[in-house]
Structure formats: C-alpha cells, structure tokens
Design a protein that fits this description.
alpha/beta; 237 residues; single chain; Uracil-DNA Glycosylase, subunit E
Length: 237
Amino acid sequence: MTSTSVRLDALDDDIVGCRACPRLVRWREDVARTKRAAFADQTYWGRPVPGFGPSDARILLLGLAPAAHGANRTGRMFTGDRSGDWLYAALFRSGLANQPTSLALDDGLTLTGARVSAAVRCAPPGNQPTPAERDACAHWLDEELALLRDVRVVVALGGFAWAAGLGMAARAGCDVPSPRPRFGHAARVELVASSASRRLVLLGSYHPSQQNTFTGRLTEPMLRAVLDQACREAGLS
C-alpha cells in the first residue's frame, strides 16, 4: 500500500466520523433507524460516505450526496439504488469497473483509473443540502483532491456537482472563468492553476437519477460518450 493510499484511507476514516451538520446527522440516522420496508432486515450505514476508488485515479466522478436508501444504507457512493445501477454499468462498459453492478461493500467491485465521490457526504432531506451544509463539507472534497494527484478529469454528475467542481478547482488554485461556465450535458471547461501545478478538465453529465433516465433525458449512449471522453482526456484510452 502506498503512502498516498494510507493517507486517503485516513481521510476516509475522518469523513466517516464527521458530525458537523446537525440536520444531516439527525436525518441520516433517523433514516437508518426507520429504514425502508424492502430493507427492514438490513443494517444501514447511517454515516457520512467516503469516496470509492484507487488513490492513483485519473478520473474523479462527482455526485451530489448519498441517497437515503442507497449509499446511506450500503456505505458506498452510488451503491444500492437505481442511479448507481446506471453509473456502474456505464463505468464497466468504459473499462473503469470490473463488474457492472454495485450492491454492497463486499460485492467484489473494484475501479481502475476512476474514483467516485460527492460534494456532500451525508444523505440530505429531500436530496437537498443547504448552502451552509454544502460549504461545511467542501473541505473534505478539497483534501481528497489534494491527495489524488493523478486526477486529470472531473466528471460532474448534475448541476450541483458542477458548481462544487468549479469551487473545488478554484480553491485548488485553478483559474476559473468569470462568469462561471454553465452546466450542461457534455459541457467542458479546462481549469489550469496559475502556477501550472495542476490542470483539470471538468466535464458535465446529467445525473443518472430515475428522473433523468426514465424520461430519456439521459440515455446510455449519452453517459457512455461522456465517460469515453473522460478516458481519452485522462490518457486511459
């Protein structure tokens, strides 16, 4: 295990222990106690959810926050819900995952060249964190990016993640255009640090939520195209 992997594991442990936002703590733990009927026999994670993927990842996939009965139940980002079914199947098709499903922490899933994270680490009521909660969580993302020195491409899954990605890049010293680039599917912006110490490409994709996939706003070819572009830009294909 590399020193970066050890430091990333330590960061993940710190994230899991976070109790900074009282509203989110109450919500995630209440959901874990009451559960959904379909998962009544399962023990929910009920804590902040760390990122998932190797320390040498070149692509960082950024979501909004854990789903109440998805990652808040399983303890892994985009795991155990329909959004994750879409995302990991697409990662498998692009050669970034060893299997197309993500069901539980012990299901054997591994990622190559990519890491999955989120702007907010606790499941929020109504899937809507407050600005204060977003800001309180931002330092975790900053610390994660600082350790992921090989990351070249950030794929923002949705407008919230797009805004978080721009903020993360700005805090990392990258020059962000003003006005800030608008989110859209397949949107692309290069973000380069003034010191030339870091260069990131930010790509936008509609979030693989049921609202988007059931209506056809996001299709499998659309998501595959963004991931394939991310692989090319990251030097993985």
